[in-house]
Amino acid sequence: MRTQVAIIGGGPSGLLLSQLLNRAGIATVVLERRSRDYVLSRIRAGILETGTVDLLREAGAGARMDVEGIPHDGCLLADNGEMFRIDFDAACGRKVMVYGQTEVTQDLYDAQDAIGATIFNEATDVALHDVDSDAPHVTFRHGGADHRLDCDVIAGCDGFHGISRQSIPAALRQEFERIYPFGWLGILSRTPPVTDELIYARSDRGFALASLRNPMLSRYYVQVPLTDRVEDWSDEAFWTEFRARLPAEVAARLVTGPSIEKSIAPLRSFVSEPMRWGRLFLCGDAAHIVPPTGAKGLNLAVSDVHYLCEALIQRYRTGSEAGLDGYSARALARVWQAMRFSWSMTTMMHSFPEHGGFDRRMQQTELALLQRSEAARRLMAENYTGMPF
Ligand code: FAS
Ligand code: PHB
């Protein structure tokens, strides 16, 4: 079997890259380890930057988002009950779209099916070969048989636990990491969201986030110690803790109900450089992880895909490899911008076990600066709604 671009991973990165390349006349094959149902059962991101919205529309996968997505032109920040608003539109003229990653992935699978793209779900034992040659290939098992896929280029879109990053020799990789001493316990409940706009709430009990998916689907989080397990948290315990971390006027109107999904996600900042080795190019979580505080993870995957797609179209249309040679540096420049923003939001809004009085004053001062300074609000709004690609 042969194709032009072999894509490892059928999450948002892999599917969007496949969709954009096929629309540009470039052949792809997507190899996804899990079943389609399993991929679509994941509950993850909820906020799309302006650039992500535009690229999904360009890919022909934005129609349902434009009907069901909810544009947001601001968010709320709270510190021990005192709440204020960041007006994105007034500060930088941009908005975000509230639309779950699960829906984005469904729309991408639908768009791929509509153009007859080649996706192997439940492709196992994927292995990359001759990556640093001009004739790379991939082997994998599917339908009880072994397969070989020859290609020009391999896109590693297989997430943090995938094999692509590990296929780059450790001696050639430089990894940067910060593990945070807490996680996010998240629940989904078929209840009316307590807020029209997201509330990022800092409290001495820990961080909480009130988000949503639609007028009858709430997405809420509380910071929990890394030692906590999801079975330690009954729904009642979650609602009690969540209510205690919200401003009183918000907590008073909280509608609770049974959780339909409950999970704990660890928080880390991670970057692996470079994002390219030979004919292998990494996109999304395969190369970097951000704490979800800045709502950047999914959106960074999209900007990587944008850069790689541009470079591949240039190569196939003109023969020039300049874009491919510049891909890693270009993608990493935006990755580190988002890494800084996500780290700063996480540091400002969470309770750290090692924090003392000085650190607490720094958090209060950061939040006060956002309340008082138009320049500070503009910087936050530009980062939250997404720096230009
Ligand atoms: P993904 O991990 O989504 O997709 C990689 C795909 O590759 C998967 O389908 C996997 O099955 C497949 N794969 C892995 N190994 C393979 C192999 N060897 N062979 C073939 N296929 C293989 N981001 C936010 O912005 N906000 C959030 O609130 C948020 N919450 C998150 C919660 C959790 C628990 C996690 C893990 C991530 C969260 N993220 C969040 C980040 C998340 O949304 C990612 O940024 C996004 O999924 C990145 O997409 P991909 O790069 O496609 O990686
Ligand atoms: C979500 O709705 O899941 C969400 C929103 C904003 C974040 C993180 C998660 O920063």
Automatic annotation (TrEMBL):
The keyword Oxidoreductase applies. It holds the Pfam family FAD_binding_3. Transmembrane segments: none annotated. The keyword Protein biosynthesis does not apply. GO terms for molecular function: 4-hydroxybenzoate 3-monooxygenase activity; FAD binding. GO terms for biological process: benzoate catabolic process. Keywords: FAD, Flavoprotein, Monooxygenase, Oxidoreductase. InterPro entries: FAD-bd, FAD/NAD-bd_sf, HB_mOase, RIFMO-like. Residues 2-342 form the FAD-binding domain. PANTHER family: P-HYDROXYBENZOATE HYDROXYLASE (PTHR43004:SF3), TRK SYSTEM POTASSIUM UPTAKE PROTEIN (PTHR43004). This is 4-hydroxybenzoate 3-monooxygenase. The lineage of its organism: Bacteria, Pseudomonadati, Pseudomonadota, Alphaproteobacteria, Rhodobacterales.
